[in-house]
Amino acid sequence: MRTPTGGRPHATAASAPSAPFLDVDTLIGDRQVEIVICCGSGGVGKTTTSAALAVRAAEAGRRVVVLTIDPARRLAQSLGLGELDNTPRPVVGIDTAAGGSLDAMMLDMKRTFDEVVLTHSTPDKAEQILANPFYQALSSSFSGTQEYMAMERLGQLHAQATADAAAGRPAWDLIVVDTPPARSALDFLDAPEHLSSLLDGRFIRLLLAPAKGPLRLMGVGFTLVSNAMNKVLGSQILTDVQTFVRACEAIFGGFRQRAEDTFARLSSRHAVFLVVATAQRDALREASYFVDRLTEERMPLAGLVVNRVHGSTLDVSAQRAAALAEDLDATAAVEAEALRRHADLMRVTEAETALLDRFAAARPDVPQTRVPALPSDVTALDDLRQVGTLLADKD
Amino acid sequence: MSGPRHTLHVVSGKGGTGKTTVAAGLACALATRGRRVLLCEVEKRQGLSELFGVPPLEGDEERRLTRTPAGGSVFGLSIDAEDALREYLETFYHLGLAGRALDRFGVIDFVTSIAPGLRDVLLTGKVYEAVRRGVKQLPTAYDAVVLDAPPTGRIGQFLNIHDEVSGIAKVGPIRSQADSVAALLRSRSTIVHLVTLLEDMPVTETEEAVSALRGTGTGIGTVIENMVNPSPFEPAVLADVAAGAVSLAVPGWDAPHNEALAAEFAVEAARTLEQQVRHDRLLRLGLPLVQVDFDPLGIDVESLFGIAEQLTDQLALEAA
User: Which CATH number among 3.60.150.10, 3.40.250.10, 3.40.50.300, 3.30.530.20 corresponds to the domain A24-313+356-392?
Assistant: First the structure.
C-alpha cells in the first residue's frame, strides 16, 4: 500500500536502526532443528548461553544433550555436575512435566582422540600411536584439536540419537554445542580444516611416499627439506614424525570423512548457529567476522545473542545525574554515590547502544536478542532458568 | 625501591578480563622519561594496533605505538610463529632455497602447528632476542619488554618451555634455544602478572594459574584486579543498601524516581560486596594486588595513560 503524502509515519530520520528480534523459543520449539551451535570469542558467555538454552529447551519438552568444551568446568558448576567427563549425564532438577530431559557432558579432547584411535586401528598399531610424542602433542595441545574433536563428538552424539530413535529407545532430539574458548570466533570453522590439511598435506604424503616410482622426482626437494629439518630440529624428530604418520595413516581418511559428514550436517536445515557476543568493540568485531563467514559459506545463522547488556529503568541522563551528585553535600553521601553510579551506568549503556546500533545498521538481516547484565554470577540451575527467560524476552 | 629490575613482564589473564589493555597500560607505565618499552603480542590478533588505533603490525617490524605523557615511547611487535621460524632459519642457517622448499612442502605449517612447544619456543625466542639486546647494549635495546601472553588456561604450559620441548628435541639448535629461553624465564629479570576481574570464574582461573606457575620457576609479580568499581562506603552500609533498607531522597525527585534509583543502587551495592569477597580470596594467594578502576567511557589511548598512572601509583615500578 502506498502511504499518503508526508511519508514515513513510524520512523523518523533520527531513530536508531533496530535489528529483527531473535526468538529463541520459536527456535527451540522447531522440531526440525536438531543441532544448535553457540560460537563467539573468549569471555562472552558462550557456555552460559548454551547451558541456559539447553535448560529452557528441555523444560519446553525437548530431549536435550548439551556438549561443552570447557577446561574451567563452568558448566559443571551451574549444572551441578562434578567431574569432567566425556559421557553425557542426566542433569538433576530439570522440570520434565513437558516430556523433555537434559543430559550434559564436557568434552575430554584427549580421550575422544584416543578412543578414535582405538576404534579405528589394530591394538598393536593403536599402542604405537598413543605412545608417539607427536600424537601426544597433537591430541593434547594443538589448538585445532579441540574444535576437531568437538565435531567428532557431535557426530557421535548425533549417531547415537539416530540409532536410539530407530530402535524405539528414548533419544535426544536436540544437541546444543558450546564451542571451544578460542582466541577468535572463526577458529571453530577454520581449525578442523587446518588439521585436515596438515594431516593430508604434501609434507605428510612425501613422508609416506615410497623412495622409488613416480614420486621419486619429488625426492630431490624432499631430501633438501629433510636435511634442513634434521639440521634444525635434530634427526630423531623426523623419524618420530614418520613413525607417527605411518602408524596413523589408516585412521586419517576416516577422520576427514567424518569431519566432512559433520560439516555437511551443519550446513543442513537441521542445524543452526548462534553467534554470542557482548556489547563491546572486540566481541562485536569477532561476531561480525563470524556472521560474514557463515553467510559466505551459506551456513544457517539464527542470529546474535548479546550478553551482559546494561540498561536502566531510570530515565535520567549521565550528565544530569553527575551534575546532581556534585550539588549534594555530605549529608546526602549515599544519594551522591547512587547518582554517580547511575551516571556511570548510563555512560556504559550509551556506549553499548551505539555499538549495537552500528552492528544492526551494517547487518540489518541478523536477528538479535539482548540479555541484560545479571547482578551476580551464574552458579545454579535457577540462574540458568533466569538467563533462559531473559534470552527469550523481547525487551 | 631497590630489588631486582625486571626487564621482561609477562601479562596473562582469562579471556575477557582486559589482559591486552592492562599489558598496554603497564607498557605505558614503564615508559617514563626517555625509556623505550617494547609491547609484544603472540596470538596474531592485532589487538595492539586496534587498541592504539594504528595500522596492523606486519612481519618483524617494531613500530612506535605511542609516546607517553611521561616522555617515553612504547613500541609494538606482533609475533607470528611461522615468520619467526622463517627468520630463524634465514639468520642461523642461511637457508635460502631450502627455506623456501620448507614452505612449499607445508613443513613450516606442520612444524609450527604440531611439534609440541616448538611454537612457543619460536614465539618466546623473539621476545628473548628483544630482551637480550638490552644485555648486549645494542642501539635498538629496550629498557623493558612487556608480553601480552596467552590466557591463563595455557600460561603454565607456555612458560614451561623446557619440559614441553624436551619430549621432542633432545639435541640441536632448537633445544639450545629452548634452554636459553627457559633460563631467561626463570631468571630474576622475568616476572608474570595475572589480570582478573572480581568475578568467580576469573578468580578461580587466577588461583589455578598461580599454582601452575609455582611449578615453573618463573616469578609471579602481581595480580591485577581490572575494572574495579571502588565504593566509598563500609561493607555494613553497602549491605543495608543491597538489602533495600536504605531509602533515598534526591532533592526535587518524586518517590518513584527515588525508588528506582535505590533499586539500581542496591544491585550495584550487592555487586560491590561480591567483589569484596573475590578480593579476599585473591588476598589469600599472598601476592601483591593492584586495582585498575572500571572506565565507563571504554578504552582508548588516553584511558591507557590513566591505567598507567594507576599502575605506577600502586606498583613499585623501577623507573629510571
Answer: 3.40.50.300
